[in-house]
Amino acid sequence: MEGFASNFLNWSVAQDYMSELMAGMAMTLKLAIVVNICGLVAGTVLALIRSLRVGILSALVVLFADVVRALPPLMLMIVAYFGLPFLGLKLNGFAVASIVLAAILASFTEELLWAGLAAIAQGQMMRYVVLPQAFRMILAPLTSRIIATTKNTALASVVAVPELLSQANTAQGYSGNASPLTVASIGYLIILLPMVIVARRLERLGKPA
Amino acid sequence: MNGFVDAFLNAAVLTRVWPLLLSGFGTTIILSVIVVPAGLVVGLWVALLQTVPWRPVRWSMVVYTDLFRAFPPLVLLIYVYYGLPFFGINTNALWSVVMALTLNTSAYFGEVFRAGIESIPRGQIQAARATGLSAGQTTAYVVLPQAIRNLLPDLTSNVLETIKLTSLASVVTLPELLRAARLAQGNTANATPLIAAALIYLVCLWPLVRLTSRFERRLLAARA
Fold first, then answer.
1. Which of A13, A209, B27, B111 could form a disulfide with B176 if both were Cys (CB 3.0 to 4.6 A apart)?
2. In angstroms, rounded to a whole number, what is the distance separating the alpha carbons of residues A118 and A121?
């Protein structure tokens, strides 16, 4: 038990790395905000493009959404990070992580929103009537997608973005002690637990009586 | 154009690394075959324990669910992988992955099953009990068969997510498909192995993606 406390809950070790961990937390938040906003906007645009019902455009949107949803996010990130330089395009980790995670959220948002739009009677004015209704219908699954996207920011540690997990991992390596990982875990829970609890509420509300 | 084909669609490179990719693919299948059923079974228990009359049990299952839905799976995996040796438990990569992913996915499967169980009208359960079925029989013969049908869409999409999640194992150096592709890419200084691995994922998972899309649309259409 003592071994556990000194290895996992060692406050003095955690304190040594606190400023790095805080910087990591800030980076995680920044990445999460950028990715969620870009992903939601892009997904909405894609669903609207698809609602124009122009054959070739719809096919392209579906192709994009299917490919992105079929591949593991980590795979996409690694292909983008290690593959693009072969095309002479070298993006930094933050850019790669932002683009990949936003693309994934966009594809899920597009699919959900499209399903919502298709379910609503046609002939209503898109901007004021249909879109808000469609968003309301998909609020619960969309929230769990936003949570998944926020959790996936941890994958950015693999492409050298100094976010929370990456900082904790480094600190753990230097100190030979798992306490920085404990601090990081608490950091993630601080960001994500409130979102999970809100999602639980929305699921209850969204259920047809 | 030639440079592109050389770097991304190189047949010579592909033949060289194909055995490595295949063995990685095998490991991905093994992982999926362990983690998906484990997540389903544990998740079913998480859901069933939320129907018992004893409140501390119900609440602890809710806490379990929310905790592991909030925990990024990669963080959990690294915690398990680097953390358990401090307890004197000698973890290998495979069991760390199985443990971390089961904790994560069982929370999701648990929620799916719970929603399914709650979708069965109470009257049916009371009727089943009134005809002399035990609580266990009611669950097995009345509640679960219907619940699982209501839940097929969510179950499918969670199975898809779980299979995709096995790629995290590459971070703890378990040589599954993604890890194998990265090793091959390193050995050959060529992006073809990555593209090949992506195509393998795509071929295997695309049918599941289509299925979840169809389910989703039907569900929303029924609700509107």
1. B27
2. 8
- Cβ distance A87 to B7 less than 8 Å, yes or no, reads yes
Fold classified for A15-206: MetI-like fold (1.10.3720)
- Write down how long chain B is: 224
Domains of chain B (ranges plus CATH)?
2-223 (1.10.3720.10)
Tally the residues of chain A.
209
Cβ-nearest to A83 among B161, B191, B201: B191
Q: How far apart are CA A103 and CA A72, in angstroms?
A: 12
Find the CB nearest A196 among B7, B69, B86. Answer: B69
For chain B, counts of helices (H) and of strands (E): 10, 0
Handedness of CA A95, A99, A100, A104 (dihedral sign): positive
Q: Are A163 and A156 in contact (CB under 8 A)?
A: yes
For residue B172, CA distances in Å to A186, B80, B95 come to 22, 10, 11
Number of cross-chain residue pairs from A and B with Cβ atoms under 8 Å apart: 148
Residues of chain B with confidence (pLDDT) below 70: 1, 223-224
**CA B206/CA A101 separation, integer angstroms:** 19
How far apart are the C-alpha atoms of B152 and B147, rounded to whole Å? Answer: 9
B223–A75: do the CB atoms touch at under 8 Å?
Answer: no
